[in-house]
Amino acid sequence: QGGFDMSQFGGQGGQGGFDMSQFGGQGGQGGFDMSQFGGQGGMNWGNFGDIGNTDSGQQVPNDNDGNNSSQNENMIRIMPAGDSITFGMGDTGGYRKYLDYFLKEKGYNNIDFVGPEGKNAATFNYNGKSVTYDDNHAGYSGYTIKQNSGFGSLYDVLKQKNAIKQANPDIVLLIIGTNDMNGNRATSACEQDLRDLIDYFLAEMPSDAMLFVSTIPELGGGMFGGGDRSAQIADYNAAVKKVANEYNSNGKRVTFADIHSCLNGTADLGDGVHPNAAGYEKMGKYWADVVDEYLKSSKPAVTTTTTTTTTTTTTTTTTTTTTSSKPADTTTTTETPQLKVTMAGDVNCDGQLDMADAVLIMQALANPNKYGLGGTADRHLTEQGKLNGDMDGDGLTVGDAQAIQKILLGLK
Fold it and tell me: SGNH hydrolase-type esterase domain: from which residue to which, for each copy (predicted)?
């Protein structure tokens, strides 16, 4: 029922207001064929947050179209995945809240935690202050790698929820295996399960995303008993390292991480299984450093070319001629040319500002595979169009389509 207000552009109210017959199609339905997006001949504009009629009582996680920030390509989407240690058993939010905090301390204000669980914002007290963090994740208490236990497996739940495709992460932080060890499963069997899980992540996540596969913390007697498990944990963690490095050596987007190394054995466990607050804090700091190092190394490199030339000087006297050479270094720095806005709001790059530009924004957000960058449609979004359409400098969002509408109405 509305969402994006197009009624002021004429047309038949219930048909969406704006007369789109100029774009072809079946007149009575408004001309422009948007039926692929559902609704009566058009997109359900209410899915796009503030402009739509979102039910405020329903949780809208970061990884769907209900959150505009998820559409901003400047956001770095991090998916924490694993078992109860990722969930945060024993200290609500676990390492994730500290990771969020320490990344912000490092200057990252464009982090979006994604996953099917949690909520967009939660708070905790840290150093005497109330701190807000992004609570979305894919952590499931009691879950194994792939073989179903009494609770389930991470492999199965991610597939059932289509969680990786939905989250579309740039970075995945995976810690899994504690419940397999607690069930005394053979390391060789766990290793194969881990390979299957990694293969699933690689098949589902974006091709330029990075999967960090980590060791697990120690497992003491604690709540499950069983005595000293240090040898068992060491054996499994060695397998994790071997598998992760093997994928990395084969050119896969997999990197080994060692959470076990940042913890002080069982001293940082609260119940013999899950880290205590101090342990989770250490994990958050560790992951923040890992993510920071990765993001810094992933920045586009500036190309530097050094050219060496030779200058020859000849000095002559009545008896001796001396020739000396001295190299002179010339350094040339070149950077990839930056696109510039050709016309603010001209998303389809046709040299004029009209409602077709606002429509293309909404199409690109709702169906990126067809209308987004590199989409299959004849008239899909281009890098130039994306730059032109970013009216407020925070990435292409529904707000930009609304801003174009206001300009056309003379309201702005």
Answer: 82-281
